[in-house]
């Protein structure tokens, strides 16, 4: 990868590693549904003008059905699950559990891609890592198990959304797709957000966290990620999943005084090993770089 690709890679890794920390700050004063609705609204206000300037908003009209489904499985569902899940578990554990997403994708695609010994071993190691994280970090804590379960469901939803984008929405310009899904999120959740409007004074830290979630962790991160795909291909771009949990754990331990247990390190190591093995391309799938026309569309 060239310097620009490395810069985008590190940028996305950081921007998608800090949401779990920011969510913890935001839900101290704001309800989870208010946080998700606000995050979607802020991101839409950033992304839709970008799409308008590029003249790509029209692409949403013919694909509104797919975009609506994608909004449900890629933003509304997982964002709510993660935010409500973090009420019961640490931001560090949340980031680590989300890292299992590539393993889930490999499992879902086992019917269309060869399930080699390496991929099978990767699936086993990945889910073993989840077992270590959940079994030792929240063992005996029913609410903790509920929170971990919510986050794992979010990871599954992300995996389904990734496949949906590849198969049904690859022709929709990224800024329009991201703007459309975040706008739908804001519209759908607006009534619930109004019902849970904070009745007590909200600290500046909560409002700041919400603003950063919308602008940086959603709008900017999505645009940077799509540009990274154009420059480096989807396989290499997907490797940001390996770094996101490191950022999440670092912030949680440093600023939220969350514990760093040996099970956290061991579970994360198993998840990363599982992701690496389960996502290694077979010999017939080595060329994952986008075509020149696709790269130009994503980068443009």
TrEMBL record:
Organism superkingdom? Bacteria
Looking at the keywords, is Transmembrane helix present? yes
Membrane topology term: Multi-pass membrane protein
Iron as a keyword of this entry, yes or no, is no
Q: Where is the EamA domain?
A: 6-134, 146-279
Q: Which InterPro entries match?
A: AA-Vitamin_Transporters (IPR050638), EamA_dom (IPR000620), EmrE-like (IPR037185)
Protein's cellular compartments: Membrane
Q: Which positions, given as ranges, span the membrane?
A: 7-27, 33-52, 64-83, 89-109, 121-139, 145-165, 177-198, 204-225, 237-256, 262-279
Recorded GO CC terms = membrane
What keywords tag this UniProt record? Membrane, Transmembrane, Transmembrane helix
Q: Which family does it belong to?
A: Belongs to the EamA transporter family.
Protein name according to UniProt: Membrane protein
| Taxonomic source organism | Paractinoplanes tereljensis
Q: Please name the taxonomic classification of the source.
A: Bacteria, Bacillati, Actinomycetota, Actinomycetes, Micromonosporales
């Amino acid at each position: 990868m060239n310097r620009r690709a490395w810069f985008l890679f590190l940028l996305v890794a950081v921007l998608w590693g800090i949401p779990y920390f920011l969510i913890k700050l935001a839900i101290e004063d704001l309800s989870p549904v208010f946080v998700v609705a606000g995050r979607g609204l802020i991101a839409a206000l950033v992304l839709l003008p970008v799409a308008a300037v590029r003249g790509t908003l029209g692409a949403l009209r013919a694909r509104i059905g797919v975009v609506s489904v994608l909004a449900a499985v890629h933003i509304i569902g997982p964002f709510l699950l993660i935010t409500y899940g973090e009420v019961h578990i640490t931001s560090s554990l949340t980031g680590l559990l989300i890292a299992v997403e590539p393993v889930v994708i490999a499992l879902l695609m086992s019917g269309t891609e060869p399930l080699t010994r390496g991929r099978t071993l990767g699936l086993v190691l990945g889910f073993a890592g989840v077992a270590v994280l959940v079994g030792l970090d929240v063992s005996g804590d029913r609410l903790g198990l509920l929170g971990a379960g919510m986050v794992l469901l979010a990871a599954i939803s992300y995996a389904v959304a990734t496949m949906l984008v590849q198969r049904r929405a690859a022709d929709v310009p990224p800024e329009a797709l991201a703007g459309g899904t975040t706008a739908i999120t804001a519209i759908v959740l607006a009534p619930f957000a109004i019902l849970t409007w904070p009745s007590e004074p909200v600290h500046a830290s909560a409002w700041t966290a919400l603003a950063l979630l919308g602008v940086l962790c959603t709008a900017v991160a999505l645009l940077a990620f799509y540009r990274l795909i154009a420059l480096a291909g989807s396989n290499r771009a997907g490797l940001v999943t390996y770094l996101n949990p490191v950022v999440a754990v670092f912030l949680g331990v440093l600023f939220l005084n969350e514990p760093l247990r040996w099970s956290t390190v061991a579970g994360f190591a198993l998840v990363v090993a599982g992701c690496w093995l389960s996502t290694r391309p077979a010999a017939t799938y080595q060329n994952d770089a986008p075509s020149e026309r696709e790269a130009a569309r994503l980068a443009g």
